[in-house]
Amino acid sequence: MKKIIITAVALFIIQLSVNAQSLFIAKGKIEFEKKVNVWKDIDSWSDDADGDDWLQQIKKTIPQFELSYFNLLFDDTKTLYQPGKELPIDPKIPDWFRGPATDNIVYTNIDGQQSVSKKTVFDNTFLIQDSTRKIDWRITGEQRTIAGFECRKAVGRIMDSVYVIAFYTDQITTNGGPESFNGLPGMILGVAIPRINTTWFATKLELVEVKPQDLAAPVKGKKVDQAGLLKQLQGPMKDWGKSGQRNIWKIMI
């Protein structure tokens, strides 16, 4: 009888240990849904979009949102963000509405604080090699459930004036996120940038085996760092007004 009780206690302790380990994840694949509010993009073309009949007519002919999907592979020290499942292209949204840098590949070495990104900007492909982005995050008390994980809200700022709202979970211990967002004490599962009318939210996590070769940095493209890319963009887009500035923000995220 005593032996049976001891065995039951031992099994209970083992089960507690397994459950505790399962609370923290350091390897897997996260699917992100990227959503662009195309109507709001159109509104931002004018200081008074409500008074521009032609803009309102355009909005009536296209969907409000453009959706795309990306996968984030990760282990405890590296992440690779890249295009995921393909959706049928909606012919109602003209190509020139879709903007630049819509199929980014972003590799991040968290321990080495290095980032390599491949971005297509109109007719050019850039390979951006630089240190990881530094964001001064302010963590708030607000919480939200994303893809089954309890997440805390943080607010940061990039490119001097662009505010970023992020939601992260410390149950996934890798300090990464979609695109080039990182620097919070856990995985970022949600991002919203009102200035470019765009959100990224995780839809699911898969506990897949991630091998080192799965986390290889992109290698093709015109090599440049972040400052060099910004300089190249500011020249041709300086006469584009608000549209040019918005394109720069979209490319530099």
Could you explain the architecture of this structure?
Helices cover 24% and strands 37% of the residues. A twelve-stranded mixed beta sheet has the order 7-8-9-10-11-1-2-3-4-5-6-12. The N and C termini lie far apart (64 Å). It has a single domain (27-252), classed as Clam (outer membrane lipoprotein receptor (LolB), chain A). The chain has 253 residues and is an alpha+beta fold. A hairpin with a 4-residue loop joins strand 10 (187-193) and strand 11 (198-206).
Q: Provide the gyration radius in Å.
A: 21 Å
**Principal-axes shape call:** globular
Give the tally of structural domains: 1
Strand content: 35-45%
* End-to-end CA span: 64 Å
The CATH class name reads Mainly Beta
**Named CATH architecture:** Clam
Q: Strand sequence of the main sheet, in spatial order?
A: 7-8-9-10-11-1-2-3-4-5-6-12
Encode the helix/strand succession as letters: HEHHEEHEEEEEEEEEHH
- What is the CATH topology? outer membrane lipoprotein receptor (LolB), chain A
Oligomer: single chain
Low-confidence stretches: 1-21
* Number of distinct helices: 6
**Mean pLDDT over the full residue set:** 87
Strand elements, count: 12
- Return the structural class: alpha+beta
The biggest beta sheet is recorded as:
12 strands, mixed
